[in-house]
Amino acid sequence: MTGTDRERLAAARRDCTVILSGPRPRSMAEVLAGMAGSRYVDGPPDTYGDGGPVTELEERVAGLLGTEAAVYFPTGTMAQQVALRFGAERTGTPAVGLHPLSHPMVHERDAYAALSGLRAVRTTTAPRNPTAEEIAGLDEPIGTLMLELPLRDAGLVLPSWDELVAVVAAARAAGARVHLDGARLWESTPHLGRSLAEVAALADSTYVSFYKSLGGMSGAALAGPAELARYARAWRHRHGGNLYQQWPAAVTALQGLDAELPRLAAYVRHARTVAAALAAVPGARIHPEPPHTQAFQLWLPHPADELNRANLELAERDRVWFAGGWRDGAVPGMAMTEVTVAGPALDLDAAAVADLAGRFRTHLPS
Ligand SMILES: Cc1ncc(COP(=O)(O)O)c(C=O)c1O
């Protein structure tokens, strides 16, 4: 997409009065105004990751996840590098059990190998997190098993609580540590039927993100024992992650914990209603059905170009946003987008979703 296309899309989205997928976009001025009115900016800022909203955020995350400590990172990519390195040093085994669709394997330019000298052992070829049997049956030892909750590129799929407990036990029985990629852990608790702290208690370390469902500017935290936190601060520095001040991102993360975290369970519930309404669209496929979190894959029998064009036309003409970001799949003529149910979609009941889908389809070639 060119810069002009992106601007046209952003402008169309900003003007929409009805939004099915995603949060309502905010201008930078709105974000700044929200921060200016917040108690989090009354005091002094942080310095090199210490003090101010950054420390408050770390304490808040440790409290929510029930861990001794949490360390703020500018990115999850960096946080997970450090967690996996810690596991390798503790166990003396640089092999990490990773899903072939996990973020480090697909989206990080092999940083785990290039920067941290780690080696991936693929845990399964199935489009879901590995089972206990698969971990017990690995051909080679692993120092750390990393589980992505939910596994985003497989359709934001989660294991059941029992499956999760069993796979963690299998890793431990094999002498491995367990690290959770919890970029979207916040919205995983309804499906797992356990609290954030109960989930994090299964693992040796957990990474969470502040800019996905929480709507912050950027940033992540690595939560775990105090010893891991001390190590994480040292390696964050080595990775170039000790920014002089990070309070703007930390403030938006704290605001996300205040405003969005309490609403996520309602989004997850409503995602089932939205998914069921979209499943009735001719040729549509939903995955997973019902959704495990607030987001799910919607597949339609059209090339991505046609679907993206239809969405833009609908947005520009009627100020209605269906869903953007369509990508072609392996099956020619089928494309997929992730539908994310957030605040704006709560206003749409099943009939409104069906109506919106119908309006979207009028912009598609028949
Ligand atoms: C599952 C998962 N893990 C890790 C990351 C990395 O986060 P960051 O963009 O903060 O490096 C992402 C980001 O999209 C993600 O979706």
Automatic annotation (TrEMBL):
SUPFAM superfamilies: PLP-dependent transferases (SSF53383). InterPro entries: ArAA_b-elim_lyase/Thr_aldolase, PyrdxlP-dep_Trfase, PyrdxlP-dep_Trfase_major, PyrdxlP-dep_Trfase_small. Signal peptide: none annotated. Keywords: Pyridoxal phosphate. The keyword rRNA-binding does not apply. Its cofactor is pyridoxal 5'-phosphate. Residues 46-289 form the Aromatic amino acid beta-eliminating lyase/threonine aldolase domain. PANTHER family: L-THREONINE ALDOLASE (PTHR48097:SF9), L-THREONINE ALDOLASE-RELATED (PTHR48097). Belongs to the threonine aldolase family. This is Threonine aldolase family protein.
